Amino acid sequence: MYTLNEVKNFCLYCKKCRLHKTRTKLVFGEGNGNADIMFVGEGPGFYEDKSGRPFVGAAGKLLTKMLNAININREEIYITNIVKCRPPNNRNPLEDESKACLEYLRWQVKIIKPKIIVCLGAVSARNIIDKDFTISKNRGKWIKKGDFFVIATYHPAALLRDESRKRAAWDDLKSIRSKAKELNIF
Ligand code: URA
Hints:
The chain has 186 residues and is of the alpha/beta class. The protein is built from 9 helices and 6 strands; from the N terminus they run H-H-E-E-H-H-E-H-E-H-H-E-E-H-H. Strands 1-3-2-4-6-5 form a 6-stranded mixed beta sheet, sandwiched between helices. A hairpin with a 2-residue loop joins strand 5 and strand 6. Helix 1 runs antiparallel to helix 5. The longest helix is centred in the middle third of the chain and has 18 residues. The two termini are 28 Å apart. Bound molecules: uracil. Uracil binds next to helix 4.
C-alpha cells in the first residue's frame, strides 16, 4: 500500500503518455485524504496547470459554490481528475491518456476509500462508470460499485455554457446530500 504522497511522486515522474511533455504543473488532486466523498473531473485546464490545483478556474469557482449550496466545504472532500496533466488547448483527454492515468486514480480511491464518488461530466463517467455513458440520459442515477456509490452529473463548465442545465444539476446535488445523510456521512 502506498500513501497519497508516494502516488503523487509516481505521477510527477510519469511518462506513460504524452501529456507530461506539455503540462506546466502536475494536478494530482487536493482535499481530505480520508474524505467520504470524492469528486472527479476530466483534466486540468489553464489555471489548474499554472497552479497545480484542481478546479480553481471559472468551473472550479462554480463547483465550490455548488458544494457550499449543499453545505459541503471543499476541504472536507477530495477533488481530482481523470488525467493529472493538462491536455493541450483544453482538448478532451484521449483514450490512451485516460487509460494510462486511471492507475493513479485507482490508487487514490484505494487509499482514500470514499463512500461516494461524483463524476463531473462525461469523460469522468465514461472512465469510471461505463464507456458509453451519456450525461443527458444517465446523470443522477446511483450505481453501487465495489465499496462505493457513484453518480454522474453535469461538469460545472457545461453549466456555465448552458444555464438551463442548472435545475437538473441542483436535483443531482440534493441527491448527493441525501445519499451522504443515508450513509451517515453528515
Ligand atoms: N475542469 C476539470 O475537469 N478539471 C479541473 O481541474 C478544472 C476544470
